[in-house]
Amino acid sequence: MIVRELQDHNYTVLEASTAEDALEMITREVPDLITLETVLPDGDGFSLCKTLTEPGYTKYYAQSPTGHLPVIFITEHDTLEERRKGFEIGAADFLAKPFYRGDVLKAVNNIVRPNKRLIGLTALVVDDSQMARRISAEPLRREGLTVFECSDGDEALCFMEKMHKKIDIVITDLKMPKMGGDTLCLKLRQDLGLTDLPIIFLTAISDHTLLLDMFKVGATDYLVKPFVKEELIARLRVHLERAQLTKNLRRIIGSLKKANDEIRTLSITDPLTGCYNRNYMGVQLKKEIRTAQRCKRSLSLLMCDIDHFKRVNDRYGHTVGDEVLKGFVECMGGCIRADIDWVVRFGGEEFLIVLPETGVDGVRDVGERLRRAVEETPLKTSGDALSITASFGGTGFGPGEPPNLITVRNLLVTADNLLYSSKNNGRNRVTIGPLIGIDAES
Ligand code: GH3
Ligand code: MG
């Protein structure tokens, strides 16, 4: 695989299957790079790599253009320990098995043909002199960059408004007719929000105050004209690499954040109805109670349960039953305050509604409103729309409530008992009562 991938891209490849073969081969022809398996039939890659740094062997490649022989380790055991061992003896890179098409080529290109790293990147060169543009643009093109040219700040700004997503670096002259490089830079940073884009200034001025002014408007770097093209390329490479790393990092952070949000949402919601689950209630209800007490406000709970829900399942099947549950939660969601009140799936077809800043009188109104809405709203299902009713039990506390009475358990048990009073008294009704102490924990 390795040989084929490299040969396909015009590398000449020598092959050795043992450490002995490899060492012998190097005395005859020195390669530009070695890919080396960590486990060999007659030893291990690390020892071979070490042997290559001994004077008996360095003499073979000391005269090569780079003066060293880079080694890429290929390993099945990609552990931190292995990597540390490899890098300590001078590995240039590590590839873990299984590797995929293009991995070896990329690693080899990075070392042997570093220039290729700029292929696929795009630069914008801004200068009012065509000759000056050519002096900057040509070396960049030779490095494999795609280069666009603009002749002043105005033109460059218009160009960037449309094209900024495709541009990886801007190289601009400072003094230009109409809009200069400084104004252009400021507008790119502030108006287009391109905070990570590398912007390099080319200037004939070496006055330090003026150079500092360039950084004040957001320059990444500058070069004083006349410059050597090697310096331009070297600086460009540093800034492009940094920008690419930043871009990758932002992408990774973005996807991690998204995944994190999704995991959090999944961990606190009921997958069927989308309302909160009991995990969330366990944490949030305590907080809500504490806040109400601290701010001397009321808080109420409504426990509700669909009447004769078993009959829905029995008559129409579980799928329709599920649709009814969803519709029921949606119907209630439309009758409570968004972002203040919240619904928890307490059990199968039993739900809890938490109503901050609502006293026992208030919860009676809310309960009645919900009861009526459920009764009057036929719930859509994949079959016919179904009418259901539900029973409610509500309780709560206000600022005057004895603090030792206010516990999660007391609130839940009182609301549940009141719900069952509603059931026993004929269903489709709301029963509200004061908070009763089942236990007196605080
Ligand atoms: P009551 O008026 O006394 O509350 O009668 P009920 O039939 O609603 O109560 P019961 O406790 O006898 O039955 C509740 C039913 O709810 C039984 C259970 O299979 C069903 N159920 C619980 N969770 C789900 C669910 O997620 N989907 C569906 N389709 N049914 C569920
Ligand atoms: Mg029920």
UniProtKB/TrEMBL annotation:
The modification 4-aspartylphosphate is found at D173. CDD domains: GGDEF. Residues 297-435 form the GGDEF domain. It catalyses: 2 GTP = 3',3'-c-di-GMP + 2 diphosphate. It comes from the Bacteria. This is diguanylate cyclase. Signal peptide: none annotated. Keywords: Phosphoprotein. Its EC number is 2.7.7.65.
